[in-house]
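Please check this record.
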Amino acid sequence: MSPADLLRPMTDDDVPRVLELNHRHVELLSPLDAERLSRLRSWASRADVILCDGEVAGFVLVFSPGSAYDSENYRWFSDRYGHAFDYLDRIVVDDAYRRRGLASAVYDVVEEAAADRGRLALEVNIDPPNEPSLAFHRARGFVEVHQLGASGHIVSLMERTGRSNGRESRQND
């Protein structure tokens, strides 16, 4: 699946679908309304929808260094790594499109883009635990570098350094 067939920039017409997808998974993300999404899109280096069978199957938001993004997690990485990271804020794939390799394909694209900066950074919930996400990220070579939050909402800050894509990582680890 080529990146052009998989991802395209999010448009205003996609906003209702993106908000619906975010709402369905809000317990693993954070609440999002149209105004906040508009602000995130303006700060993001990548605000794409994920396509499958001609439909919007999900979305991804990535922030590069120097963004005005106000996330505590993003700021932690920014304070430590300066310009040596890209931050994957959220990726959502609709349940109807799971188990088709979409998330892995998106990660391949995003990791490749982040390789020039040295690392892709992100967070995964550990309290409450998001075990499928933790397993997915560990299998791709992500490692925990810090934890943030308070009881009931603690996240693992994770990074993957150096290599250019997930397939390469899995073969070499």
About this structure: Residues 164-173 have pLDDT under 50 and may be disordered. The chain has seven helices and seven strands.
